[in-house]
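Input for the complex:
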Amino acid sequence: MRAPSASLVVVGNEVLSAKVVDENGPWLAARLHERGIELRSISTVRDRVDEIVEALQRERPRVGWLITSGGVGPTHDDVTIEAVAAALGRKVRRDQRLAEVYRTIHRRLRGEEMPEAGLRMADVPEGTELAGDPSFPTLVCDGVVMLPGVPKFLRYQFDRFVGNMGGEPFHLACVYLSVVEDRIAAALTAVAAAHPGVEFGSYPRFDDADHLVKLTVESRRLGEVVVAVDALLAALPASAIVRVARPGEAPGPA
Amino acid sequence: MRAPSASLVVVGNEVLSAKVVDENGPWLAARLHERGIELRSISTVRDRVDEIVEALQRERPRVGWLITSGGVGPTHDDVTIEAVAAALGRKVRRDQRLAEVYRTIHRRLRGEEMPEAGLRMADVPEGTELAGDPSFPTLVCDGVVMLPGVPKFLRYQFDRFVGNMGGEPFHLACVYLSVVEDRIAAALTAVAAAHPGVEFGSYPRFDDADHLVKLTVESRRLGEVVVAVDALLAALPASAIVRVARPGEAPGPA
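Predicted:
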């Protein structure tokens, strides 16, 4: 069983040079969080084998799952597969089942045989599992989930694999305040120190919402959240509290 | 003179746990690219001193500028300043000029004296320069630009400092194609190999745009882009080309 934790490596010159706004990081962050899989980091790197390998090797000992997005197409700048293989110490081999998948897709969509160059997409790290939907499989090797960069394809392949990744949901409570952060900083620091198993967050707003700060209180253990929220409410001046959303209640606007 | 290159460290539990979608990475990527400052990587890490320090120390030898976003407020989870100081081998000291800036802002906005806890925001790495607008300064120390996480504040402080960061603009050409990527992969690979000073990108589309693939050709040297585009057009079948946007021409839709 791999730990329910992940790091994401976004392979994307186009993100770094602002040709594309990355949609995959925020989407995967939300999906992983819903599932109770902790996302430890997002590394957005260039389409270079050495930089992808470095990010993979750095993050690998720290998490159960590595997810890559992008760099799995047929062109010269698609080097993710080569980098994953290098990071795992595996060879890249043509997978004939995968080649047949792409040939079938190509025939169906384009009404013709796939050009040989396109079959480069069937070259994967040796031992890669074809998971999820066999007609558009999710590529997984040694805990590395290699997703395509095109958002709709990434989502499809991820959703068909995430059930295998483990995870327990987080329990979340929110406390909305009518005072600025510096007014409650000391109280929050003290309560956070007394509840080390709980994650506290403080999100100031600078718009016309009904609150100035949202505090979040989160843990995989429901009881810890309940106790920590009570401690927080006791430590804050009653007049500062706009409302409280306890675990399971709708958190309300933003 | 520092090199016109940068790495961004996004400090954000809230991004990793999907409580907030990061707007700062895409915005900074676009602004840096416009200015011809190469963005080498974006590292999104948790609000932990050790993880921020690791990212800063890893990226620092590689780029002229490090940019951090977030983690500079007054609460317990704001640890970016401490991490920057540790990465640079400097002490954290209260900056009295900065304390006066925050006192003035607080008095103006809230009509009262700033609570002592709020002045934690005036604790910065020793030697930090207060650049940009003196009434809301950009914090810069040894090539590390420490920006706030709130997008409107980050943008304000960045825009008042970016003029000091150097950079020459990139020249960009785009070639729009009516064929799928695998049809042109071999030609693109050959042209890219023959023009090592030029960046080539290939962006497939899966919607109802007038093209299936956009190729981008980019360099800080205009002549190299012109030559590379000509080579690319010679290598591609004429029937595959929908249109070409040469450097200085509007690139057209997406």
